[in-house]
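REQUEST ID: PR-0412
SUBMITTED BY: lab tech R.K.
PRIORITY: routine
TASK: structure prediction, single protein chain
INPUT:
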Amino acid sequence: MAVRGTINTFIYSAPNTSELFIINIKGKTMTTIRLTRMGRKKQPFYRIVVTDSRKRRDGGWIEHIGHYNPMTEEKTMVVDNERLDYWLSVGAKMSDRVKKITGR
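STATUS: complete
OUTPUT:
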């Protein structure tokens, strides 16, 4: 087990795993499930990713858990529900748009 960080934020790595948990003492969620834009000009599609809430929209992310394509006839959405449930259980918050798309 390794714990490091500032007074308000800690990054905890569980023993025998490569998963990291970001803990904020002040109560703000540090991980967010949100969309990151991919594709070409005027032909976007989005990845549903777990990321640090302080990163930019298209900045680095922790895990890719699905994708959403609003440009097809039937709007295509694929989400790994098992991983989504896992991230919600460890305290990640969904953005408003992801809540609307997933229906949760």
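NOTES: The beta strands are 2-5, 9-13, 20-24, 31-40, 43-52, 63-69, 76-79, 93-94.
REVIEWED BY: pending
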